[in-house]
UniProtKB/TrEMBL annotation:
One of its GO terms (molecular function) is sigma factor activity. Residues 98-150 form the RNA polymerase sigma factor 70 region 4 type domain. This is RNA polymerase sigma factor. Keywords: DNA-binding, Sigma factor, Transcription, Transcription regulation. Residues 10-75 form the RNA polymerase sigma-70 region domain. Gene3D superfamilies: 1.10.1740.10, Winged helix-like DNA-binding domain superfamily/Winged helix DNA-binding domain. Belongs to the sigma-70 factor family. ECF subfamily.
């Protein structure tokens, strides 16, 4: 890949990668760091990356960086300081977007990632499998289970409203 192609890839894909990571971890600063790290890794590996496959490379790199960050933070988490109110729901109807965000928060990391890649970013199953290093059938199963879990949660919310 050439310098011009690298600059084009930054222009074309930085916003999408940022949205994907932000939707997963809900922290703008960490999302910016992950995106920056992903583009740094691309720059270091620029000679070996095909420009036609740069989008997949960036999303895969960002996804792996995000998973590494999540794993590091899980080890550091102090369970005595966990706020119980974030795990309970006592609010009234707050709007569809908020309910969907709450449903997304209840998913596991991998379920949230594949649903966001499929439903928010528009990737097909094969592309998601490449990014997450899962088989295509695993991706379909995770998406199905995630959607079912979200549907069950939203159904519970309708009875509350």
């Amino acid at each position: 890949m050439k310098l011009e192609e690298y600059n084009i890839s930054v222009d074309q894909h930085s916003d999408g990668v940022f949205r994907f990571i932000l939707k997963n971890i809900k922290d703008e600063d960490k999302a910016r760091d992950i995106v920056q790290d992903s583009f740094e890794k691309l720059w270091r590996n620029v000679e070996n990356v095909n420009f036609l496959k740069v989008k997949s490379y960036l999303y895969t790199t960002a996804y792996r960086t995000m998973i590494d960050l999540i794993r590091r933070e899980k080890r550091k988490e102090d369970f005595d300081q966990v706020d119980v109110s974030i795990y309970s729901h006592s609010q009234h109807y707050t709007g569809l977007k908020e309910i969907l965000d709450q449903a997304l928060e209840r998913l596991s990391d991998i379920q949230r990632s594949v649903v966001l890649l499929r439903d928010y970013e528009g990737y097909n199953y094969q592309e998601i499998a490449e990014i997450t290093e899962l088989s295509e059938s695993q991706v379909k199963v995770y998406i199905y289970r995630a959607r079912k879990k979200m549907k069950d949660y939203i159904g519970q919310m309708e009875s509350v409203i």
